[in-house]
Amino acid sequence: MTENPGNRLRVLLVLLSCMVLLSGCSENWGWYVVDPTTKSGSSNLRFLLGGLYYTVLLSLTAIVISIAAGLLIALPGLGENRVLRGLNRTYVELVRAVPILVLILWVYYGMPQMIGISISVFWAGAVALALSDSAFEAEIFRAGIQSIDKGQYEAAHSISLNYVDTMRFVILPQAIRRILPALGNQLVYMLKMSSLVSVIGMQELTRKANELVVTEYRPLEIYTVLVLEYLVLILVVSAGVRWLERKMQADASR
Q: In terms of Cα–Cα distance, which of 190, 180, 203 is closest to 233?
């Protein structure tokens, strides 16, 4: 019988929590800065959690844009036109080769000079994350669409469906069910990579923690809370993705 990865994560969370509580007895720890029973600790915790909204909003915005862009990038690479396939491959390889932190800095500081308009911190982060992830999404969609049996295309052609309708009603619904775990992994990846947007001043979880460390001088305790915040957030998202996957599989089997 195989072990459920979710159970391993829950055990890890319990062990980490126990370690934190036990370590609180050490003189080297100052848990008063995040103690919810004190006024200052409660205020600090609310300050840290204040970045949750922007972390989730930034990640969801970026993943929606990257999925749409990835699909549009993947489709030309599936055709017979060698030029379009070459452009698809070039885009994917170039974007995947650029570190995401460098891309965030380029979008925020370089793109406004290139296009002549200012861009907010939020949209700079969303565009950079989406641009980086779109190359991975394109490969996921390409693999998912290519995994569909060619008989499905022939059946759609036999009832006079054009290319767009074939993709919309026949191929993509089946492909999405197959690639849903990969899309869920990319959402988790996006949540983690959103922490890098803190370098340009985005008030998300990591930026909030950095600012609190500067005022409280307790990096060990504050960053431990930050680790737990991301751990709980990603566990919740992973559980939601698994639920959606089971639901889609149940609907498909009816």
A: 190
Of 211, 207, 205, residue with least CA distance to 229: 205
Token pair for residue 249? Answer: 């599989």
pLDDT of 152 strictly over 90 = no
Handedness of CA 186, 192, 195, 196 (dihedral sign): negative
- The dihedrals phi and psi of 147, each to the nearest 5 degrees, come to -80, -10
Q: What is the pLDDT of residue 116?
A: 85
pTM, full prediction: 0.84
Instruction: Indicate left, alpha or beta for 120 from its phi (over 0: left) and psi (-120 to 50: alpha).
Output: beta
Q: Are 129 and 100 in contact (CB under 8 A)?
A: yes
CA angle 5, 6, 7 (to 5 degrees): 90
Tell me the domains of the chain and their CATH numbers: 53-202 (1.10.3720.10)
- Tokens at 149, concatenated: 């049996």
- Name the token pair of 253: 């089997």
Burial of 80 (0-12, 13-18, 19+ CB in 10 A): exposed
> What CA–CA distance (Å, rounded) separates 91 from 55?
27
Q: Which residue has the tokens 């809370």?
A: 225
Alpha helices, H only, 98-218: 100-105, 111-115, 121-146, 150-158, 163-165, 172-193, 205-216
48-93: pLDDT as tens digits: 999 999 999 999 999 999 999 999 999 888 877 888 889 989 999 9
Secondary structure letter of residue 199 according to DSSP: G
Instruction: Give the position of tokens 């290319």.
Output: 163
Dist CA 253 CA 117 (whole Å): 50
Mean per-residue pLDDT for 174-193?
91
